[in-house]
Automatic annotation (TrEMBL):
Residues 70-283 form the ABC transmembrane type-1 domain. It is a multi-pass membrane protein. It comes from Paenibacillus plantiphilus. Its main location: membrane. This is Diacetylchitobiose uptake system permease protein NgcF. The chain crosses the membrane at residues 12-34, 69-96, 108-128, 157-179, 215-239, 259-281. Belongs to the binding-protein-dependent transport system permease family. It is found in: Cell membrane.
Length: 291
């Protein structure tokens, strides 16, 4: 009993230190999730609430725009995650063992877009892609190809947004991969060199397995980031043309702040939360098993 009391006293200081973080986590993360789940069962305006059960979810699954937003979001997640992981692995594996100044230059070059506000980057791309006076359209006209309106066609708007989002965020993944690869034990590379392994074999057999935990982390943070994609859609397309670029986050925004359907917006938020869990939990489990 005395040892147990002593253990509690020794740990009490530690509990005091983490209490503010736990309190912030409960107030700003756990409570909003619980409140969002509760609100998804209500029909809400700014004056009263009416319990409607699963009617909000039934309305969502009966709305073709919701399914369009869901499909677009899945497409964004799949392509942006694959592009980010693949390109970041390629760049990092190509430069991680080069001169320190060169590596620093590469990291800084790719990280600049990450540091710039997404609003600013979206405005820059909006200028470049403007069909009337944008730079891309200007060069297209100079080459005799006519006006280019990539954001005004349903066939091209998704690839353009995928590229813009990928180009803006890939720098973070590159930095994480370079840091992880620099930390790989040198003995492994020396042994591979003695065995006559090629650069490609070193990448496949040593580097990629060694940075698996970084790959899982990058995958998870990109899944979460893409599910929350909003600024690019709002500033470049507004969900158009004909809802071709609408995402779950933009659909949630419209229901909450344009149509005053807070209950339906909460239901969309719950579905996004479940999708995030569905995609992230397996990755986290594999990371935990590895460690």
């Amino acid at each position: 009993m005395r040892l147990r009391n002593q253990s509690i006293k020794e740990n009490f200081t530690g509990y005091l230190f983490i209490f503010p973080q736990i309190l912030i986590f409960l107030i700003f993360l756990v409570y909003p999730i619980i409140e969002g789940i509760r609100l998804s069962f209500y029909q809400i305006n700014y004056q009263n609430e009416k319990f409607v059960g699963l009617d909000n979810y039934a309305s969502l699954f009966g709305d073709p725009v919701f399914f369009k937003a869901l499909i677009n979001t899945v497409v964004f997640v799949v392509f942006i995650v694959i592009l980010t992981v693949g390109f970041a692995l390629f760049v990092a594996s190509a430069v991680f063992d080069k001169n320190a100044k060169y590596v620093s230059f590469i990291r800084g070059s790719y990280y600049i877009p990450v540091m710039v506000s997404m609003v600013v980057m979206s405005m820059v791309w909006s200028f470049l892609l403007n069909p009337a006076n944008g730079l891309i359209s200007y060069f297209s006209q100079e080459m005799g190809l006519g006006t280019v309106n990539l954001l005004g066609k349903s066939q091209t708007v998704l690839p353009v947004i995928i590229f813009v989002t990928f180009a803006t965020n890939v720098g973070q993944a590159i930095i994480l991969y370079i840091a992880a690869m620099i930390g790989v034990p040198k003995d492994l590379f020396e042994a591979a060199e003695v065995d006559g392994a090629s650069r490609w074999q070193v990448i496949l057999k040593i580097l990629i397995p060694s940075v698996k935990s970084s790959t899982i982390y990058i995958t998870i943070i990109n899944i979460i980031a893409v599910l929350k994609i909003f600024v690019v859609i709002q500033l470049l397309t507004g969900g158009g043309p004909n809802n071709a670029s609408v995402t779950l986050m933009y659909y949630l925004y419209n229901n909450a702040f344009k149509y005053n359907q807070l209950g339906m917006a909460s239901a969309v938020g719950v579905i996004m939360f479940l999708i995030t869990l569905l995609l992230s939990v397996p990755q986290l489990r594999s990371l935990i098993k590895e460690k």
